[in-house]
Amino acid sequence: MASVAARGGPQAPSPTVYVRNLHERIKIEEMKEALRTIFAEYGNIVDLVAKTNVKAKGQAFIVFDSIEAAERAISEVQGFELFDKPMVLDYAKTRSDATVKLAGNEDEFEVHRRRRLAEKERKQAQEALEAQKKLKRPAAVPGAVPDAAVAGRPSKTVKGAGLKSSNPAAAAVVPDEYLPPNKILFVRNLPDDYTVETLSALFGRFEGFREVRVVPGRKGIAFVEYESEAGAIGAKEDTAGMTLGEEGKAIRVTYQRQ
Fold it and tell me: Is the dihedral of CA 121, 123, 126, 131 positive or negative?
């Protein structure tokens, strides 16, 4: 769907209206029904999205079939109170899936969808990194003097005293599931009998497939490379969690760490 990032000013006209400052305690279906009733007066609604997750609460997207309809809605509904809260309206920053489907062909929609997924995963990676940074241990109390130093003896370094490590490995690590997209996939939990040829047949179905690389002496893992991120994104989305082999093991597919 369209981006919900911080908005730095008026957006370029588009068929999608971004609505914020909605009442967060109203049930989502009730809110969607109220929004549809209000905005249907201004044109044909092809999609209406409102979500329950914390970051998207109080927001919605109304997708019309024309920019003119969105313009009328913004002009006339701006500041209208819904459930005792004035709605704040603007054009969405990016095109919605419904708009691309309506205006383009399947290939254009697929490109749009992959770009949206890549942007979403980049944001998740950034958020995960920020969360990891917040989990750092608190620093030692300023001005505190170790007992050993007071006694005139050299003090031992206490592990976990809040000093920042110079070891790069100790830096905040993004979980595998939130690594930003790149053109190489890291595949785990593969059946032991799966060969390069078997994996090439599985992953070669996706755009820009280049090669499969296995690690000598290590079973169950492989690297799959594509010519661009787009192919890797499509392959990851379609194969992650797929069950393979007689045991029906679910494979893990993530982007390679860079």
Answer: negative
Cα torsion angle, 124, 126, 130, 135, sign: positive
Integer distance in angstroms from the first to the last C-alpha of the chain? 28
> What does the angle CA 185 – CA 187 – CA 190 come to, to the nearest 5 degrees?
155
Distance of alpha carbon 233 from alpha carbon 113, whole angstroms:
10
* Positive/negative CA dihedral, 138, 144, 147, 153: positive
Q: What's the pLDDT score for residue 54? A: 64
**Residue 212 burial (10 A CB sphere; 0-12, 13-18, 19+):** buried
Residues paired with residue 209 on neighbouring β-strands, in sequence order: 226
Rounded distance between C-alpha atoms, residue 131 and residue 175, angstroms? 11
Cβ–Cβ under 8 Å, residues 169 and 212: no
Integer-rounded Cα Rg, in Å, for the chain is 25
Query: pTM of whole model > 0.90?
Result: no
Q: What DSSP designation does 10 have?
A: P
**Position 138 pLDDT exceeds 90:** no
The Cα angle at residue 117 between residues 116 and 120, in degrees rounded to 5: 85
